[in-house]
């Protein structure tokens, strides 16, 4: 396949951004976690903000790189068996900071029949899906809200649902949110921050490549629910 100049550019810029960002994040966490330096509470607070922002930026760069790879048909998947509980631990660690920083009540509910069960999946990619869906739930939710990651058994599938009781999604906009760079014009939906609108497009593509589909339901003033099913092995 002929290499597209645009893809090549995105890929190079992405990698150039990711390397220094990863090192910034590592050094901040070193200052925060090691006892080598005495730091004031104020400095700790500021560094925590820097750390959160660097995590967000790394996630964003990962999303841009992944979407560009998918669109050029060059995405590679590394499938392996993983226990669902093991995956959920990784996901919890991935989103813990974001959830904590917004002081959202986050709960994982898992069907007891699934505890020993495994799925065959590309772990990094499915983590990227969860990071996006849970971060969205946090982002479009207000301080005292709750987010539930519900994991249930449906025949020979595991169903993952990310449920939040934050901002709802209007019915006529529900399909457009999976299109990258789309815009929702509802004043309720507007936040004063600009987002890239690529997270859901990426999730949709990953889940499609895993042979499934993301579904979304939302009810005004009540909740939004993003879900998908994967085969159990
Ligand atoms: N849980 C949710 N509750 C309400 N609206 C949501 C939720 N998840 C997504 N949306 C709507 O769908 C849009 C698209 O989501 P998407 O994740 O693709 O982009 P984003 O979060 O705005 O930006 P980013 O590229 O950083 O993820 C959001 O801007 C938001 O309007
Ligand atoms: Mg998003």
Q: Please state roughly what percent of the residues sit in beta strands, choosing from under 5%, 5-15%, 15-25%, 25-35%, 35-45% or over 45%.
A: 15-25%
Radius of gyration: 19 Å
Helix content: 40-55%
If helices are DSSP runs of H or I spanning 4 or more residues, what is the number of helices?
5
CATH topology of the largest domain: Heat Shock Protein 90
Order of helices and strands: HHEHEEHEEHEE
**What profile does the largest beta sheet have?**
5 strands, mixed
Going by CATH, what is the homologous superfamily of the largest domain?
Answer: Histidine kinase-like ATPase, C-terminal domain
CATH architecture of the largest domain: 2-Layer Sandwich
| Poorly predicted parts | none
Summing up helix and strand content along with how strands pair, one would put the structural category as alpha+beta
**What is the overall pLDDT average?**
87
> How far is it from the N-terminal to the C-terminal residue, by CA?
34 Å
- The structural domain count equals 2
> CATH top level of the largest domain?
Alpha Beta
What is the overall shape? globular
Based on DSSP secondary structure assignment, what is the total number of beta strands?
A: 7
Query: Biggest sheet, strands in spatial order?
Result: 2-4-5-7-6
Bound compounds, each kind once, are: adenosine-5'-triphosphate, magnesium ion
Describe this protein with a few key phrases:
233 residues; alpha+beta; Helix Hairpins; Heat Shock Protein 90; 5-stranded mixed beta sheet; two-stranded antiparallel sheet; 5 helices; 7 strands; binds adenosine-5'-triphosphate; binds magnesium ion
């Amino acid at each position: 396949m002929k290499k597209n100049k645009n893809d090549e550019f995105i890929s190079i810029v992405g990698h150039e951004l990711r390397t220094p960002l990863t090192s910034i994040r590592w050094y901040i966490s070193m200052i925060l976690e090691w006892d080598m330096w005495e730091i004031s509470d104020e400095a700790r607070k500021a560094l925590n903000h820097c750390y959160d922002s660097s995590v967000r930026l790394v996630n964003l760069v990962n999303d841009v790189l992944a979407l560009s790879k998918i669109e050029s048909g060059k995405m590679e998947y590394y499938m392996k068996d993983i226990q669902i509980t093991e995956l959920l631990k990784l996901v919890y660690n991935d989103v813990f900071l974001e959830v904590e920083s917004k002081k959202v009540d986050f709960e994982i509910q898992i069907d007891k029949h699934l505890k020993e069960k495994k799925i065959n999946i590309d772990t990094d990619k499915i983590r990227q899906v969860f990071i996006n869906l849970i971060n969205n739930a946090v982002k479009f939710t207000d301080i005292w809200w709750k987010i539930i990651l519900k994991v249930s058994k449906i025949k020979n599938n595991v169903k993952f649902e990310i449920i939040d009781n934050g901002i709802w999604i209007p019915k006529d906009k529900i399909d457009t949110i999976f299109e990258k760079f789309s815009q929702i014009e509802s004043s309720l939906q507007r936040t004063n921050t600009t987002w890239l609108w690529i997270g859901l497009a990426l999730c949709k593509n990953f889940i499609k490549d895993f042979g499934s589909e993301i579904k979304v339901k939302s009810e005004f003033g009540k909740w939004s629910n993003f879900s998908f099913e994967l085969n159990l092995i």
